[in-house]
Amino acid sequence: MHIDQQLSRRAFLTRGAQLALAGTAAPFVGSLGWIGEAAAATATDYKALVCVFLYGGNDYANTLPPYDAAGHALYQRYRPTLALGRDALAATALRPDQALPDGREYALAPALSPLLPLFDGGKMAIVLNVGTLEQPLTKAQYVARSAPIPPKLFSHNDQQSFFQASNPEGAETGWGGRIGDMVYAGNGAAALTCINASGNAVYVSGRQAIPYTIGGAGPVSLLRESRTLYGSATAAQTLRQLMTEGGQTLFADDYSATVRRALDTYGRVNGALAGAPADNFPLFPAGETLADQLKLVARLISASADLGVKRQVFFVSLGGWDHHDSLLTKHPAQLARVAAAMRAFYDTTMSLGVADKVTTFTASDFGRTLSSNGDGSDHGWGAMHWVMGGAVKGRRFYGRAPQIGSNTSDDVGAGRLLPSTSVDQYAATLASWFGVADGDLTTVLPNLGNWDRSGWNLGFV
């Protein structure tokens, strides 16, 4: 099922205004677009969803290796050059409150050890074998092509988009943005409902809730506060007037209104962040891309009361996960970056007193093959993800543990996992916690209705 992507005249005009800003003035406005401020927020509390997207396809088998003796032996058999030794996993073996069937056990990769106390403390949960699906799918249906299969499987761009938007590359809206649409009209600062801290991503694009894009150091001002344009102060002043004063057409009026709202939002965000300086957030490692993004998100969350916003959806990301080679050296370093940044973020939400109001979760293009290509792994499908936050029902696994090996009922080739939990179910669970009504879930997630309603909410939060 494809999402209706028809835009209203006003949205079309405003998006046109954004495109017109794509040259010299683009950094200041980002993707602000069509934003109308609501008079007051109807929610009485604050909640935030934070998506941590790992671009390139994270290797699931060395992120959450099997730890039980039988499972680890199979894991080592099918990736002899890549498997992490069982002795090396003893310190990060997971001891859930509810054991998995058949004696199955997992460990966190040693590089993820900073997150182990969160799991042990019930503030982190593991969701098993999550991936893009249009409906429940068996291996027999996949082989016979007798049921819908997500288009362009194993393609980075398309599966990134399908994970974020339920549609391949070219989608106009993502499910984070559509969640934002549901709370947009009642959010006190509607322009700040969806915030992208890492560049372009369809995940936080809604029909009304257009993402506010922000740089690592904060919002970027009009023309970067430059007083000259091509060396001319007059040219800079003239451009500012053209951008804000409107004109004789509907397009010009919408364009100038967009710019004025962008300027107003910039002033509000910049002022709020001035009251939450980066030096007040010392837990984050310095000079790390993901840590810098999450630090900015933490600063914005700390200023949410000043900004008058009650519901926010954030997007951060880290690239560099396409490990066709050098997996044993590159992958642990990447996981260590994620662990340090996410642990610092959780501890910061604790110090702010909002840990139970912020839920953070991982996402990626796809998992990778269990079989090695010698020095790395190739594009796969299902993957393991984790969710953390004070509201998470942690120290548990959710979903079904896949069989380990080649040519199993969970494997579509080379250890590519056929997902047993859909992104839609994963997303619906998060959306329900955020406050999206059951009757609105299929608007946010158009494929969700293909699953039995009893399976919509996985229960991890």
Automatic annotation (TrEMBL):
Q: Which Pfam families match?
A: DUF1501
Query: In which domain of life is the source organism classified?
Result: Bacteria
Q: InterPro entries given for it?
A: DUF1501, TAT_signal
> Would you tell me the protein name for this molecule?
Tat pathway signal protein
The scientific name of the source species is Sphingomonas lenta
Q: What is the lineage of its organism?
A: Bacteria, Pseudomonadati, Pseudomonadota, Alphaproteobacteria, Sphingomonadales
